[in-house]
Amino acid sequence: MELDSGEVLQALTELGCPTLFHANTVLTSCSCLWANRLLSRNAVEEKGLPQTPQISDDQDKKLGLYDDVFLDFADLHVSFKRANKYGPVLFEFSAQHVLSSLPIGVWITKSNPVHWRSAKKQEWFRSVDEFRGSYNRFVPGPCLVLRGYGDQLPLNTSSDGDGQSCCGLLDRIRIDSPSRLCSSTVDLASFAFGAIRLAALRGSAQVQRVGPRMCASDSGCQCVGEYDDMPEIELRKRFWIPGE
Ligand SMILES: [Zn+2]
Q1: CA angle, 225 then 227 then 233, to 5°
Q2: Ligand 1 center to residue 214 CA distance, Å?
């Protein structure tokens, strides 16, 4: 059910959620930066840009979600003390800037669509009050969906129309930075940081803050062990390291 963007913003303010998040692989994140848009899976494809395949792609097409743009209400890496399964790059948006700029209403899932087995089992909040009453950042599932929004969400908007004064919707990019080498030579963190900075430059994305997420081994975050034990093929997929 479509919800009023202004009412959702009010609820997020009350819930103490000023930021919206989007996690992805280094490759797909670079495609968004090149386009200076947060792109749906379908929009990336239509623009002929590369993206990392996701296990849910076929199901998303069947459920009519493939052209939707997804945002989380919390930094899931922090909430669940583990690497985000969608990738090591996290875009952070001002909820106020995004929601107040939208010409459309928004939808909110009750659970991750990867668990929806058929269109008959889609689970959406039916009112802002229902969402407000049940939201807990430590319970996975809810995410904000801009339905059929394709390539319409800019990472930056020009406030005066001449491109000189930019108002950034994208506040910050954080990149997981495990201290691990791929094939004994490629430093994952340095490679990812360089690729993201270059993509932002090429796409003219005004990203003021790009920084690493460094979880110490005594931080209690499972990402440290996850990255240490991760097969190289999975590391290459997440960090866009070319194959040998
Ligand atoms: Zn961590």
Answers
A1: 140
A2: 7
Q: 142 pLDDT exceeds 60? A: yes
Mean pLDDT, range 127-148, rounded to an integer: 93
CA of 127 to the centre of ligand 1 (A): 34
Size (the chain), residues: 244
Residue 87 CA, ligand 1 centroid: distance in Å: 12
Query: Could you tell me the pTM of the whole model?
Result: 0.93
Identify the burial level of 136 via C-beta atoms within 10 angstroms of its C-beta, where 0-12 means exposed, 13-18 middle and 19 or more buried.
Answer: exposed
* Interatomic CA distance for residues 27 and 189, integer angstroms: 14
Mean pLDDT of all residues in 103-123? 86
| 9 compared with 163, residue with greater pLDDT | 9
- Give the range among 8-17, 83-92, 180-189 with minimum mean pLDDT: 180-189
204 Cα–ligand 1 center, Å:
29
For residues 161 and 50, give the distance between their C-alpha atoms in angstroms, rounded to a whole number. Answer: 30
Which residues have C-beta under 5 Å from ligand 1, the single-atom ion?
215, 221, 223
Sign of CA dihedral 153, 156, 158, 162: negative
Average pLDDT value for residue range 9-21 = 96
Give the DSSP letter string of 179-193: S-EETTTEEHHHHHH
Give me ligand 1 centre to Cα 77, in Å. Answer: 6
